[in-house]
Each structure stands twice: as structure tokens, then as C-alpha cells.
Specification:
Elements (H helix, E strand, L loop, with lengths): L2 E10 L9 E10 L4 H12 L18 E4 L2 E4 L5 H20 L12 E4 L6 E3 L2 E2 L2 H9 L21 H11 L6 H4 L2 H5 L6 H11 L7 H4 L1
Helix pairs in contact: 3-7, 4-7
Length: 218
């Protein structure tokens, strides 16, 4: 079986022992096809059991494993380690070109894959963020159906047309992982800003033909 060797640069922070965050290099050897999440699980299970991060489904459904990988917020379970290693190498080549004026050669040695917690949120420990404000803003848009009309039959679902569904389908697909809020410049400048996730959730119900609380929701 082909294997992949990679170096992870992990942002570590334990409020019980650390005054500020620190970076830690960890080398891993995993089968090709492994994800960044699987690399973190390997570190936790075989190298350092104190590493803290969230995970659940491992299939890009729950949104638990949102974190910054090479500076971009994404799901660790959906990020191939091979792709992250290549991205880190290319980023190092660009920095080398910008800093020294030397060619950004394809032969630049592999650079560590940098993994850190989501931005715009307080860090609880290592890669785990406090998402309380994120959830509060989602709740503030009242993300549930509020119809002004009584249901024709309380025992039946409130149906919609296919066209109505198409209008709001993309909003329904939001995993509420927090990645968009992590990289939102407006939220970074103004912490009172609702954030993209809350706005998408509001859009999902404002565009729902069965809902009747648009003005109150906004």
C-alpha cells in the first residue's frame, strides 16, 4: 500500500498551561487517500492524546470539523492530505519568490500543512472554538417556519411547489460549520455583524413561500 509522509504544523493552546498559542510540528505517515482529519486522528491516537479538535460524521455532513488548513477555513474530513501538502508546497514557493526574488521552483521542499482553529471565534483549546456567538446569531433570525395561516390539515405537511423549493434549496444545504464566518472580513471588522451563516439561514425562510414573518425575522 502506498503511503504518504507529511508534516503538520498545529496551533496548540491549552488555557490551563499556556499564556498564548504556540506552533507544534508533527510528522505523520498515513496511507495515500487519507484526509487531514484522519491525520489529526492519527496524531491524537498515536502521538499526542492531548490534541483537541471536534469531529463526528467524517463524511462532510455534520460540519463539526471546520478549521483553517493552510490559512483557509474548510472541513478537515473533506480535505485530502495529499492536496493540502501540495498546497502548502506551492504557498512556500510563492513566499520564496516574493521574499527573495528567486524562482518559485517546483523543486521546493515540502512545507508543513498548517492547521489552526477557525477565525473570528474565541479558542477553547487547540483546534476547538467557542461557537456560542455563532449559534446565538443563527437563533436571532428565528430559523423555523412561521406561517400566518393555519394549516389546512394539522396532521399533514405544509407542501411547496418544485419552483419554490428551487428558490431556497442552496440555503438548506448549509452545514452550519462556521467556515464562512471564520473567513468573513466584515465579521472580523464588526463582531456585531450577523455573519454569512445567519444571513443564509434568514434567506432560507424569507424565500419560503409558506413563511409569513419576513419583516419580523429581518
Amino acid at each position: 500500500m502506498a503511503v504518504l509522509r507529511a508534516t503538520l504544523e498545529l496551533r496548540r493552546f491549552d488555557p490551563q498551561t499556556d499564556r498564548e498559542a504556540r506552533w507544534e510540528l508533527v510528522e505523520v505517515t498515513l496511507p495515500e487517500g487519507s484526509t487531514v482529519l484522519e491525520a489529526l486522528m492519527h496524531v491524537q491516537e498515536h502521538i499526542d492524546g492531548s490534541l483537541a479538535f471536534r469531529r463526528s460524521c467524517r463524511h462532510g455532513i455534520c460540519g463539526s470539523c471546520g478549521m483553517r488548513i493552510n490559512g483557509c477555513a474548510r472541513l478537515a474530513c473533506n480535505t485530502q492530505l495529499t492536496a493540502a501538502v501540495e498546497q502548502a508546497r506551492r504557498m512556500a514557493a510563492v513566499r520564496r519568490l516574493a521574499g527573495r526574488g528567486a524562482p518559485a521552483s517546483a523543486d521546493v521542499a515540502p512545507a508543513p500543512v498548517r492547521v489552526e482553529p477557525l477565525g473570528n471565534m474565541p479558542v477553547i483549546k487547540d483546534l476547538i472554538c467557542d461557537m456560542s456567538a455563532f449559534w446565538a446569531k443563527l437563533h436571532a433570525v428565528r430559523p423555523w417556519l412561521q406561517s400566518l395561516q393555519e394549516a389546512p390539515d394539522p396532521d399533514r405537511e405544509r407542501l411547496m411547489t418544485q419552483d419554490d423549493w428551487t428558490t431556497l434549496a442552496e440555503g438548506v444545504l448549509c452545514l452550519e460549520c462556521g467556515c464562512c464566518s471564520s473567513d468573513c472580513c466584515s465579521l472580523e471588522a464588526d463582531e456585531e455583524f450577523a455573519g454569512p451563516a445567519a444571513l443564509v439561514k434568514a434567506y432560507r425562510y424569507v424565500c419560503d413561500a409558506r413563511d409569513g414573518q419576513t419583516h419580523r425575522r429581518l
